[in-house]
Amino acid sequence: MAFHEAIKQLSALMEQVDEQQRSTFQNMHQGYPTETLVRFLKAREWNVQKAHKMLMDCLNWRLQNDIDNILTKPIVPVDLYRAIRDSQLLGLSGYSKQGLPVFAIGVGQSTYDKASVHYYVQSHIQLNEYRDRIVFPSATENQGRHIGTCIKLLDMTGLKLSALSQIKLMTIISTVDDLNYPEKTETYYIVNAPYIFSSCWKVVKPLLQERTRKKVQVLQGCGRDELLKIMDYSSLPHFCRREGSGSSRYHSSSPGADNCFSLDHPFHRQLYDYVMRKAYGPESMMPVKQGSFHVNLPDPDPEGVKIAETIESEMHKFENQNIDGHINGLHI
């Protein structure tokens, strides 16, 4: 009963927004306003005032950064976009048996070193918006029920201490998601976790909110057998199909049709073609300018910063242990 009352109160507050805010809210909810209100309420533990502030901040962020039109702003030339796809490894590998989109993320081998921070943030937001405006509505139509969440598979293959240099950017991207796209992920499955991740996870896990912690499952090895309980083999990303396969960056030995990270994968081709049509189509009156789409980056959530700092600290400890072990080994 309290949940219904919270939804009712937040809905009444949303009736007071101005026309611009109402328009961008419609782009957000895609015909499912109540489900969207619930997401923000969940993200703020069903506190109506906090959820309202979070939602208003999100609407203003969308308006200030023209997020409604971000799918009309391609990253050009295509070679730059390919370089981003090669170094920011993520893609849609398929759907679960329940019809939820399955997104794969190559955490361990994403280098984020081929473009500026703004390009990576732009690319990430474009994928979010395409998911919300195209992928979810299509899945909803196919399933005959509302689909508004996805499954994420995080591949830790190749995770090294050099990942410390990426923590700041990953914290920025995570903050964009936490503040503006909350409660979009049903479950996070972590696969191919090396020892360095396992050590960090033991420390980070207690820092997470219970709601988030319940969503994270660390699977044995590539997780294939467990994942096949919730999705067909065809929806498994390449790094989950056999033990030791690992994720791989785009190259000739990793065909685009099989590698969901690659620009040549059908999902990324469809996404890129969609953005190009929106940019250069008949309704577009202005030529596309080259240059990144600069989004105002939100201040990282204090909890997110704390977690990132803890990860960094634990990885440094791991590095020092390795160095000490190596030095001791030399004296034996």
TrEMBL record:
InterPro entries: CRAL-TRIO_dom, CRAL-TRIO_dom_sf, CRAL/TRIO_N_dom, CRAL/TRIO_N_dom_sf
Pfam (any one): CRAL_TRIO_N
PROSITE patterns the record matches: CRAL_TRIO
Gene3D superfamilies: CRAL-TRIO lipid binding domain (3.40.525.10)
SUPFAM superfamilies: CRAL/TRIO domain, CRAL/TRIO N-terminal domain
Domain CRAL-TRIO: 77-237
Taxonomy, superkingdom: Eukaryota
Protein name (database record): Patellin-6
Organism: Apostasia shenzhenica
